[in-house]
Write the structure tokens for this entry.
Amino acid sequence: MTLLFDSADRSQAARACEDLQLGAMSWSLWGMLGWHDIRKRYRRSVLGPFWLTLSMAVLVASLGFIYGSLFNFRLSEYLPFLALGLAIWNFVAAILNEGCHSFLEFESLIKHVRMPLSVHALRVVWRNLIILAHNAVIFVVMALWLGLWPGFGLLEAMLGLFLLVVNAVWIALLLGIACARFRDIQPITGSVVQLLFFITPVMWKPELMAERQLLITLNPIYYLMEVVRGPLLGETLPLSTWAGALLITALGWSLTFAVYVRFRKRIAYWL
Amino acid sequence: MFVSANASHIGCKPVAQIHLDQVSVDFVIYQGSGRSLKKTLLHSSTSGIIRHDAQHRIQVQALDKVSIQLEHGDRLGLVGGNGAGKTTLLRTIAGVYEPTAGRIRVEGKITPLFDLSIGFDGDASGYDNIRMRAAYLGVSREEIERKMDDIAAFTELGGHLDLPVRTYSAGMMLRLAFGAATAIDAEILLMDEWIAVSDAQFLEKAERRAAEFAGRASILVVASHVESVLRRLCNKVLWLENGHVVKIGPVDEVLTEYRQNQHLDAAPANRDLEPTVGKLTM
């Protein structure tokens, strides 16, 4: 028989560590639940989750033609850029918005049965990763059509994607905790996300921001987006971009871990 | 003190245990705007001036230095008025609330049964809901698939199990939830009010199954307002009032005293009349 729980046998830091570890190990649980969330959203629809792909394709095509001609971009370059940018942006925005509900959404579950709390954040990240995969289809089709082949960039982009997901986990955890305690962080996040869309180079290329580079250099999302998008478009990323992404990961996780150690125990009380 | 008959095979394997040592659980009630970030920020900038009502917070002590020892074979009933801390105690044992003070130590696998339809999703089929519920409670995929036929047979829902549960009637829903909840053996079983059904056809069968299910558990903790349930299931009773233990002991002794106290307090005339239907929310 396994010892299930002893409230005094280890420090809160060890407990937070254990929670994250056990959460990561329960991949079959959040894997299943994430898929379930997706299926639930698209039950009874013929195309299912490919509605995401379709609506994203329509968006990419229409925005591509409008902005491509506004900015005088070559479409064969601009469309793949936009397809990737929008897909990654969708992921980031969803993590920010849904991260606020990481714990609130599963209140009845959290109050019913003890399980690592990180499972709920991982579920949110996983279901959005599934959506990202559906949206990525557009870029794949486009790349095949245009004959783009990122080569080694594909490997680099995989590394970048890994970094993006690692960051998504701390964001979902941190926002989940904050929103469980302070209920008005959620609407604040909502409006910040809208703003971020315009100051992040999703629809426009960073080169266009010639005079206000600081706006890009200080935008954490830019780094996380660029480490996936850049290599796939065949660009050679400056070392500073990777350094920036790694720094954000380290800082984000340090902060989140400190908060998790301090408040993990209180989350159930706040719900 | 309360060695029960079936506690004899200690030594064959480690047994389930629950130890609570001076466990307290405090809730901070964030009253209205207390939860708002604005309030906290404004407060931090003006804290020097309005210190007296600075926090706007009320602390509720839901459990106050509760100490209990439970071992294999123990069947503990929880009694106490509304807000006495029964549910909080159950959730603390379940590991949902980590105590703010004191120590809790639980050995064995816990099956909480506070809400029969936990994690049910109206759009998923009956079978899928059974699987989801099992996953939430940490039951392995293989085990639940093994029990699937048993559950299907018990619920008598047949082909309906392939349909989304939102098409079910309330009675069908209850059968499904009940069947799924009682299928997997529990080591430590925690119940907030005894599960029972009002469906006449189903009643006898359900009662038998529930009793067997509870009987197989190593430790049972059940909160109930119904004396007959406590007398039937339990071998000791804990009387909670305002978060602290008034008395713990043999069923008859504690219940008699509890009832006398209730009468003194001009409590409702007959507590046995309270509804026995298990909680079912969709």
The interface with chain A takes residues 13-16, 27-28, 30, 35-38, 40, 91, 94-99, 102-110, 112, 114-115, 118-119, 121, 123-124, 128, 132, 135-138, 141, 187 of chain B (CB under 8 Å).
